[in-house]
Amino acid sequence: MYQTFSGSSRRPRQVNLSGRNPNPFAAVGQGTGHQQALASAHEERAQRAKQRARLEAAKHIQRVWRGAKCRTQVKEKWREEWDAKEGDGSTENGIPYQNSVECLQQMKLLVQLVGVQYDGDRKRVYTCCNRLMAAYRSGGVGKEEGGPWPMAYLRLERLCLDVLAWLAEHWKHLGKEDIKGSQVLFQALKLLCSLEPHLTASRVSEHYYHTLALFVPIWQSSDILKSPTAFTAALTAPLAAPVPSTPTAYASLATQLLCTYLPRDLLDTASAAVDSQRLGSAVFAVLSSDPSKEPREGQAHTSYGKSQRDPLSNPHRRLALLANVVFVYRFAHSFSDSEAYSSDRDFVGAVGSLLSSVSGLVEAESAHNEFFREQTDSLVDAENVGNLLSGSGEEDAMLFAGYALTLLRVFRRKGDDIRMWLYLGSNSTSSGSRGSAIRYFWNVVQHTTVYQAITKDSRAAIPFLKLQPKQDQSEWRTPSLDGTGPSTTQRPVDSAGNRITKKWEIILVFLELYTFVLKIMGDDEFFAGSENSVTTNQSTSPRTRDNTLPLTEVKDLTTFLKNLGFTMYFDMSLIIGSNVLSEGNDVGSLSKHFGGPSVLAMADENEPSKPDDDNQVSQSVAGITGMSIDYVKGLVTGVLRQIYERDSRRRFLPKEHWLMSPSRLSMEGNFIQAVVMEEESRHQIQEVSDTEGEDNPYDLDGDDDDAHEVWQPPATVRDRFRRRPNGADTERRIRQQRKASRKRYLQAVAPRLEILQNMPFLIPFDTRVQIFREFVHLDMLKRRNGYVDPDLWRQSMMFGSHHGSFGGGDGELNKHHAKIRRKHVFEDAFEQFWGLGEGLKEPIQITFVDEFDIVEAGIDGGGVTKEFLTSVTSQAFEPGPEDLFVENEQHLLYPNPALIDAIKYAYDASTLDGRLVVIETCRRYEFLGRIVGKCLYEGILVDISFAGFFLLKWALTGGSGSAPRETGYRANLNDLKEMDEALYQGLLQLKNYPGDVEADFSLNFTVTDNIPLLSPPVLSGKNTPKSKTITRDLRPPSGADTPVTNANRLLYISAIARHRLQTQPHLQTTAFLKGLASIIQPSWLSMFNQSELQTLLGGTQAPLNIPDLRQHTAYGGVYAIGDDGLEHATVRMFWDVMEALEDVDRRRVLKFVTSTPRAPLLGFASLNPRFSIRDAGADEARFPTTSTCVNLLKLPMYRSKEALRDKLLYAVRSGAGFDLS
């Protein structure tokens, strides 16, 4: 029953006017009306289309079959016709054709009927070639100019190549007749090449050498090709006759045959017939051109293989081509006279382009391929490199500059050698019109648009530095090194129309050379560049004078480098583009930006296509392939730092010269706050990034990898490229990618921090000190949960109101408390505080006890901690032959370089006990680093003076591009002067000696170390040291057999400086810097140079500001200032006496009270605790006394200035303190 609101139970009638079947389950096509008609029409149309397609397919099959059958019949008819004229078809001892007409007809017929897969057709080809050669020998045919003959020869040559390609593919299954026939074909190819050399080179040369390359593996495994000379003759036939298209033949030889490793005997044969200059020119042209999208007419294209549009797209083929090209040049000059070709434009262009395209694979290939290693090693010797910069023209100089940069980038381990050879080679030819390379390149640099624009305005560097992405089509291709050839990379051009790339290469080569010159040049020689310098006429070598720039031009150079470096750091986001910020705009998304599950997949997916780290970022500076922004930044910053260090030692530039203009870097407003915010962001980024492992800092078996990078034995280098598990490779690549990504991100979002860490001299020193104290304050807030005051922190720890990383309560506080004996401050401190690690940053509490373990009166409110730190430093840094530190002639401290060696000989370092003693000593160095860091952290000044070269290692441990710990430091001759004046003078004499160094000095690449012999216990202080000399190899394993000559003396000087300053004290310095870095972040230290670090640690050397000290002095007892605001009479007399004293006596008074003679960097308002004076009774016979722990002067109430002055000076000059009370 159907219910409705109307009350009727009848179902209303359904009227369907659409023609659709309302049943959803009905079969298709069962509808009614026009729907059924449409379905039927569609079905009929589909049937008719299927019938037409079937009919067309049948017709096509019939056409193909009829055509094939017809062609088969026609070819059979032609074969019968051809065989009828040829006779018995013998392939041996061919009978000459009766006339040239018969020969031409048979050749035309043959090329149309042959199918290389048929045995009979191949026999016909052998017969025709035999008869053609016989006809040529009899004079029946020859070279024909014009007419049908050239194309007939060309078609026959292509047919021979097709047959040879088929034979090479099926060589293992060939019969004797085909093997003999291959020799006939090789002979025929030689003849055809001589008949039509131009067409062969221009039309089929690539096909020609592509086919011959198929026989190289056969040559290695079969003696059949070696016995006759047919193959080798065919190999060089297209190169025999010089024609206009011969360069095309040489290009085909390079891209098809020489891009594989040939057997040595075959390579010797080919090299004897190859013109090395033509080969170099062809390779250079190929590498400088843009490969066409369609195959060229002469390109390899056969029935048996597809054409290769870019045969050198495989990097391993380019490696083989590089080795073969170098070998051909060496062979042409009997493997001896490398000077004859090392400065050849074509050789430099070809080898430089190839090297640049495979830079990341050269070292790995050398590790397992002896032939490749032999050829590439020949590129970096004194003769090859020394002659590079001898070109007379500007274009030559620009080309060779690009090649020199490539050598420096590819052969990084021989970087110092290459720079030295360039330096010596350029000076050996400086007698010409050009002069020394340094001055020549400097003159060129000064006239470039890049230099002039950037010197005027630092913002002008941005368009010149814009990173240019590579093209996908041939991203491996290196543009022409001289900038004249076509290029796939769009580069900016200057107003004169020359490519900016050429100018950049000149600038970078100049900076590379000048970096080396600064490294080996003493300060006296450097300042000899000034016309008014008193050292101009002193004993400096002519080479040194030729490479010294006038100080006025050095000032111009620093202006250019300062503007360029500032832009690269401050405007990084504009240079690299905004895409670096597209991911991870907030900290929450940084984990995705720096790694995660997707990184592993990405690394695995891209692993085969990224053979080296250099290709991870397919961008280059100004279009120079392989020149990354980090390389340019490191080079510019390195030169600037070296000049700045010299200016710090001996001022020759105005102090304001180093500061950046306020329009680019303003100190006004919230600059410090902006820097602090960037530091906070960096901390957050580091927290979300993965923590990378750290090597063992106490490696006793050797020094750091970087310490011997120049003299690394080849076997050790090869070991680095042994096959590692896939998991290790993947993990390493993930870490590298994550680190590089994080580095690029930080460079873009923290430009002020980048400036502070890499070019801090652009910012005033006082501003940097304030930033340093802000960093420390923020770190205190973070670590102490907001309680900077020590008492409040202890209270929070005691009552558990902390949520930090320490597990609180009395146990935690006890770790920060120590009982110290006065006579054993360092030993007790080391024993009780070593386990704290970076926890030493927290407030510590000290209780001094005497020799009877009786506690001294007093409560540590901060002053006792100051006294403890100053006592530890004064005791631990006491210099001596068996102590941790020694001093130079200026009484400046540095780690004892011979101590670890002495311990190794006193205790057998190969035993467990000996290693433990060495490790214990390294821990003491590390603990001293923590103590010094604690003083810097708390702002406590200590009276310690370190050597400048040791402080320089502190400043170079932070900043982008710097290696961890000491490896960021590079030893140089000037640093050696501060360590050993006598050794410095001797090396300087050796460097400037005009005679024969080898004959007169009789030196080799070894060094003699004087090691004190110790008796256990080594740290007792009761031993009588005895010395022993040890000879060490500076160039293992052949240093003792390598004499020091005029050519290599600069390397010897550099090796001596490296050993004395870096290698010998490596463990000591590494341990100290590790401890220092656990308290003070290395990037904070990189804001200061060596002299500024000394000021930060011990205070300023400027004359004491007595009004400032008086304004910030606190008074106690009778001397407390009352309501009237007037000072006590004795206090006024004290200040009058202080005003009248000389600065040396003022410093004695300050040291008497505060334990340091220098004022705080930010004035006495920052002295903690404050300078204080209180009364000590009315007895004028008493002397003033002090409590240095709280900076308190206890001054008796004297009645006259004379008595106060006499008593005060006696007290401060006697060096006594508590004992005068």
UniProtKB/TrEMBL annotation:
Residues 1-21 have a biased composition (Polar residues). Its EC number is 2.3.2.26. It is an enzyme of class 2 (transferase). Residues 840-1221 form the HECT domain. Residues 1-35, 290-312, 471-495, 1018-1041 are annotated as: Disordered. The keyword ATP-binding does not apply. One of its GO terms (molecular function) is ubiquitin protein ligase activity. The active site is at C1189. It comes from the Eukaryota. It catalyses: S-ubiquitinyl-[E2 ubiquitin-conjugating enzyme]-L-cysteine + [acceptor protein]-L-lysine = [E2 ubiquitin-conjugating enzyme]-L-cysteine + N(6)-ubiquitinyl-[acceptor protein]-L-lysine. CDD domains: HECTc (cd00078). Keywords: Acyltransferase, Ligase, Transferase, Ubl conjugation pathway. InterPro entries: E3A/B/C-like, HECT_dom, Hect_E3_ubiquitin_ligase. This is HECT-type E3 ubiquitin transferase. It comes from Cryomyces antarcticus.
